[in-house]
Specification:
By secondary structure, the chain is an alpha+beta fold. It has helices spanning 14-20, 60-72, 107-121, 138-142, 150-163, 200-214, 217-228, 235-256, 262-274, and strands at residues 8-12, 25-29, 35-41, 46-52, 80-86, 90-95, 100-101, 169-171, 180-183, 186-189, 196-198. The protein folds into two domains: 4-95, Phosphorylase Kinase, domain 1, CATH 3.30.200; 100-282, Aminoglycoside 3'-phosphotransferase, Chain: A, domain 2 (Alpha-Beta Complex). The strands form three sheets. It has a six-stranded antiparallel β-sheet with strand order 1-5-6-4-3-2, sandwiched between helices. A hairpin with a 4-residue loop joins strand 3 (35-41) and strand 4. Bound molecules: adenosine-5'-triphosphate and magnesium ion.
């Protein structure tokens, strides 16, 4: 990896200057397809450096300012220290080091996560600087190459049409258990590549759907009911968004050949059969 001193900074805080003066140990953190993530540590400080691959083109400038705005409004997010370009023009962002994901998620954690989500979704459009009020077309943004999968497309268009999509809240766009870290008993939401104005029900449903598939129905339902007990949303509208989330996962599966986990596939099939908004033809064999 290139060192931090090779970064061309677009914006940075004094914390970066302090880091640059120190001897840093660098270690790799486990990351997904679009980025490499590194932990930087000195004797006294730590930080995380995320470097995006060339073919992903995130708006890091937007992400940097959104993190600052959310933190300012009391949402538990990483501190943004600086951003810029690594050699070969890879975009990079430096944030706080915020701990690690939970290895064992209890019922109480699920309830706490509901509060975290509610805290994020309480931020209204009007509290945000107009430059941060960015929306995307929901379907093209979250459903790449959809037209190559007409079965998913037909079902999705109907569901989205019936959902009466709102784009009035700050959404994370990829809430999952890997993106909530814990440090000293405090939760922090990380990985804000997809932050935008969107429908809070989608944000909630994507997370509850993934938990349902990966961890089981019980935990998902604790999260969902804890959230709904403090919100005006109805369970049925979230179920429809869970169906939308499921179609997204099926599409990503076809495109990317994600790792296959027998239990998860069984739970996915079970979900498809039980969810009244989804056609049973989607059951995987
Ligand atoms: N601020 C942080 N503090 C501690 N660990 C972090 C932090 N940011 C990322 N990590 C670690 O690195 C992993 C990958 O980071 P992240 O979730 O941002 O990338 P990703 O899922 O690969 O991203 P993307 O969805 O943008 O491709 C996280 O799951 C976490 O273990
Ligand atoms: Mg992540």
């Amino acid at each position: 990896m290139e060192s931090l001193s090779e970064m061309v900074w677009i914006e940075k805080t004094s914390f970066i200057d302090k880091l640059l003066e120190q001897e840093l140990t660098i270690s790799n953190l486990p990351a997904g397809l679009e980025a490499d993530v590194w932990k930087l540590s000195s004797n006294t400080d730590s930080a995380v450096l995320k470097i995006w691959s060339k073919d992903s083109n995130p708006d890091v400038h937007y992400q940097y300012h959104m993190l600052a705005a959310l933190r300012d409004k009391g949402v538990s997010v990483s501190s943004a220290y600086g951003w810029g370009y690594m050699p070969a023009n890879h975009k990079a962002l430096v944030t706080s080091y915020d701990g690690s994901p939970l290895t064992n998620v209890t019922d109480q954690h699920a309830k706490d996560f509901a509060d975290l989500l509610l805290q994020l979704h309480q931020v209204t459009l009007y509290e945000l600087d107009p430059v941060l009020q960015r929306k995307y077309d929901f379907i093209p943004y979250f459903f790449p190459r959809l037209e190559e999968h007409p079965d998913i497309q037909t079902e999705l268009l109907q569901l989205v049409n019936d959902a009466d999509l709102q784009q009035d809240k700050v959404i994370h766009g990829d809430l999952n258990l890997g993106n909530i870290l814990v440090t000293q008993g405090k939760y922090i939401i990380i990985d804000w590549t997809n932050v935008q104005l969107g429908d809070a029900r989608y944000d909630l449903a994507w997370m509850s759907f993934l938990i349902r598939i990966n961890n089981g129905e019980e935990l998902a339902s604790i999260l969902l009911h804890a959230y709904l007990s403090k919100s005006d949303f109805q369970i049925e509208e979230v179920r429809r968004f869970e169906a939308i989330a499921c179609l997204r996962l099926l599409l990503l599966h076809r495109i990317a050949d994600l790792p296959k986990n027998e239990n998860a596939i069984e739970r996915l099939n079970d979900f498809i059969m039980k969810n009244k908004y989804l056609n049973n033809n989607f059951v995987l064999v």
